[in-house]
Amino acid sequence: MSLRINKSEFKTGEKKVVKNGDTEILVIYLGGSSFYAVNNKCPHLGCKLDKTGVVIREELVCQCHFTHFSLKTGEPRRGATRRPLPIYKVIDKGDEIEIET
Ligand code: FES
Predict the structure, then answer these.
(1) Which parts of the chain are beta strand (E)?
(2) Using CB atoms within 10 A of its CB, is residue 95 exposed (0-12), middle (13-18) or buried (19+)?
(3) The overall pTM is greater than 0.90
(4) How far is the CA of 48 from the centre of ligand 1 (A)?
(5) What is the fold of 2-100?
(6) Nearest Cα residue to 20 out of 37, 8, 45, 43
(7) What is the pLDDT of residues 40-96, one digit of tens each?
(8) What are the phi and psi torsion angles at 9 (to 5°)?
(9) Atom of ligand 1 nearest to the CA of 67
């Protein structure tokens, strides 16, 4: 399955939650063609990353226990868990992005 979202809904640095059934996907826009989509639930203890996540370069830091996740791979680079953050492939479709779920 996939979700389509209009790029014009995002300003640089903005993040928004989109729903895919019961799953919340956090979409992050870092400017240019850099869109990322990750699961909104931290794999450590479940904090909601739209509230607790801060983007530093290409890492998303969950401020509940300061785990740093790569936005590109979901890999935890340091912090409280070794569990990866589920990420979703984002495909550029011109005025829209498509998120593969
Ligand atoms: S819940 Fe995110 S690091 Fe603990």
Answers:
(1) 2-6, 15-20, 23-29, 35-39, 53-56, 59-62, 67-70, 76-78, 87-88, 90-93, 96-100
(2) exposed
(3) yes
(4) 9
(5) Rieske Iron-sulfur Protein (2.102.10)
(6) 37
(7) 999 999 999 999 999 998 999 999 999 999 999 999 999 999 999 999 999 999 999
(8) -75, -10
(9) 3
Give, in order, the Cα–Cα distances in Å from 77 to each of 62, 64, 65: 12, 15, 13
Residue 90 CA to residue 26 CA, distance in Å, equals 12
Per the structure block, which two tokens stand in for 91?
């495909």
Residue 26 near residue 38 (C-beta atoms within 8 A): yes
Do residues 20 and 101 lie in contact, with contact meaning Cβ atoms separated by under 8 Å?
yes
How close is the Cα of 62 to the center of ligand 1, in Å?
6
